[in-house]
Amino acid sequence: MLGIKKLDWLVVRSYLTPFIITFFVTTFILLMQFLWKYIDDLVGKGLEWSVVAELMFYASMGLFEMSLPLAILCASIFVYGNLGENNELIAIKSAGISLVRIMKPLVIVNLLIASLAFVYSNNVLPYSNLRLWSLMFDVRHQRPALNIQEGVFFDGLDNIRIKIESKNINTNMMYNVLIYDHRKEDGNTNVILADSAMMQVTPNEQYLIFSLFNGRRYEELLDARNPRQTRIKRPFQEQKFTKQEVLFELDPTEFDRTNMELFRHNAKMQNLMQLQYTIDSLKAYKKKLNDRSFKHFFMYKIFKGISVKEEPPLVVPVDSLFYAMNEIYKKQSVSRALDFARMAESYLTTNIDNEHEQNLVFNRHRIELHKKFTLAIACFIMFFVGAPFGAIVRKGGLGIPVIFSFIFFLVYYIISMIGEKGVKSGEMNAVWGMWFATLIVFVIGMIFTYMATHDKVIARPKILIQNLIGILKLKKQKNI
């Protein structure tokens, strides 16, 4: 019994190291991909390092839902692949210990990880998403820093474009300055050229002062009585100057934080109870709105001439009344009936479109509701894919585990995204779309577990290729 306990600790220690390494490496790679995607929103904003660090922290927390299942899959293949490659698995089995018993300690560990994944998905992830995307909103609306690069048009000022040929970092002087002033919004009618310039910001940081030296200012004068006159007929004004100061108004430079409560309505920023409450509220509002619209339409458009309070209900002899009319009233009755029919058709078509839009809103909340559970289940099932696969192939190290993990997880992720997009567009049921990928992983895990517990083997890729080539050659000889 003591030997089995030591074996459990051996397996757990062998599992935790590759799990932690794979988890952090995968998170770092995904974080770099996040930076690459949103680099244009971050560069040139003059953000403090604390803001960037906070953004990276919350972004990395949001990536755990991808890196965690991948780390479990890779680590489980690594551990049992090493045990098989070093013949330790055979020795353990020869001692009367089954593969299921060897997997037991890691089953407990992964149950704990799956439970923590659910807590993370339900409590931590909505908060990190709220912090991340509210911060990203503020970063995107932050005024760019006044860092004018050489040979590139600077567009950090509203309706102003500035280009310089060179600059002296020590003296803060810029040379060969070109300024397009579009503040009048009438095209390139105001251009300034200067040999050199110096830039400084007022103490209250509300204005930017450009001190221009030895230059010219070109301006086309527009006639207010005839603003659409052709460019050829416009009067032209040229002004030479030795020194001229130009004043530009700046947006506030402080990094303002938006109230996060404004983003609470987003489905990604709600926990399980909030999502359920929102879905119930949307259902009640949808039913009330549709019932009121239906009642209003048919009461005041279709049956407005019939009283519903009469006892017994009034029976109108429609056919007799119609045939008793003269031809003019018949035509008018048919015309009005057609108008009512078109009106009803338009009403129903609009309601169908509204129903579709309402379902799309429901689906976004249903997706996040199911994600609270799919992450935890995926973390647990990934172990039953990786552990038996490693025991079957008996290959450890960083080769087979890493390659198979990334390929398998990529396929799983693609299927998950297809299902999620199908639910968002209303083409798939929320349950089927969100659990289809997990169901496939479950079936594959059961197949691998069955093969591993019954000592089945998977032929090596080299043998599979050789067999395939032999079959193709045999078919070719038969055809000849």
General description of the model:
By secondary structure, the protein is an alpha+beta fold. The protein folds into three domains: 2-141 and 372-453, no CATH class; 154-249, no CATH class; 266-368. The protein has twelve helices and six strands. Strands 1-2-3-4-5-6 form a six-stranded antiparallel sheet, with no helix packed on it. The two termini are 65 Å apart.
Instruction: Please provide the count of β strands.
Output: 6
Strand fraction equals 5-15%
Discrete helix count: 12
Structural class by secondary-structure content: alpha+beta
Morphology call: flat
Task: Name the average pLDDT.
Answer: 77
| Amino-to-carboxy terminus distance | 65 Å
Radius of gyration: 35 Å
Oligomeric grouping of the chains: single chain
Poorly predicted segments: none
> How are the strands of the largest sheet arranged?
1-2-3-4-5-6
Number of domains: 3
Give a short account of the largest sheet: 6 strands, antiparallel
SSE order in H/E notation? Answer: HHHHHHEEEEEEHHHHHH
Helix content percent band: 55-70%
Q: Which descriptors apply to this entry?
A:
3 domains, 13% strand, 480 residues, alpha+beta, 6-stranded antiparallel β-sheet, 12 helices
Short description:
This protein has helices spanning 2-37, 39-42, 49-62, 64-85, 88-94, 99-140, 272-302, 318-324, 327-393, 400-424, 430-453, 461-479; strands at 154-157, 160-168, 173-181, 190-201, 207-220, 236-249.
